[in-house]
Write a structure and sequence with these properties.
Helices cover about 40% and strands about 10% of the residues. The protein is an alpha+beta fold. The radius of gyration is 17 Å and the shape is globular. The relative contact order is 0.12.
């Protein structure tokens, strides 16, 4: 396993020895909401703070749902998570199951359907918090409405300068060749896919 903060090897622990020492000094803490490790003493990680802030906004009378929020809500209710992965995640498609199992078997720390830390309410397919944070989107449908959602999401990733990896059905066929090439620029330089 690698450290969730710096990406160094950490054995079976979420933090390496150096980051564990920083935890003891109060410089690294766990988010009180989601439990992810972070580099500050604030009670919530940025993502959970955004979520909390968004909930307060939604409670106000003048809140208007955005196009992307409506699309996300419709998609998530239309396609239920029904495939179980090796690490226990429940995902929405066989291709997402293959991606999740690949990440798990390569010992890459990842989260499924994590909220992207931006003002709009947007969820990625996969999030990798080590190295340079990266979001992975698997684009599996060719329906007109889905393609519109895809473009909206890609615009938001670009607007907020988020590292995005796009995967398609063609990539899934050669995942062992494609994904290491796409991930390499974002993972720590000492990371090994072995």
């Amino acid at each position: 396993m690698v450290c969730q903060i710096c990406g160094a090897k950490s054995g079976f622990y979420p933090l390496c020895k150096n980051c564990f020492n920083l935890k003891d000094e109060g410089k690294i803490t766990k988010c009180e909401d989601c439990g992810i490790w972070k580099k500050d003493a604030k009670p919530l990680c940025y993502e959970c703070w955004l979520k909390s802030n968004k909930e307060k906004q939604k409670a106000s009378d003048d809140y208007k749902i955005s196009d992307i929020e409506a699309e996300e809500k419709n998609f998530r209710s239309k396609f239920r998570a029904k495939y179980r992965t090796d690490d226990g995640h429940e995902v929405r498609s066989k291709a997402e199951q293959i991606i999740d199992n690949w990440l798990y078997n390569k010992k890459i720390v990842h989260a499924y359907e994590r909220r992207v830390p931006i003002e709009e309410e947007l969820y990625c397919d996969f999030f990798i918090p080590i190295g340079k944070k990266v979001w992975i989107e698997y684009w599996g449908l060719d329906e007109k409405k889905y393609l519109k959602r895809k473009e909206l999401k890609k615009e938001l990733y670009k607007k907020y300068n988020k590292n995005l990896i796009d995967l398609t059905d063609k990539d899934i066929e050669n995942l062992d060749d494609i994904l290491p090439l796409k991930l390499r620029p974002y993972l720590p330089s000492n990371f090994s896919f072995d």
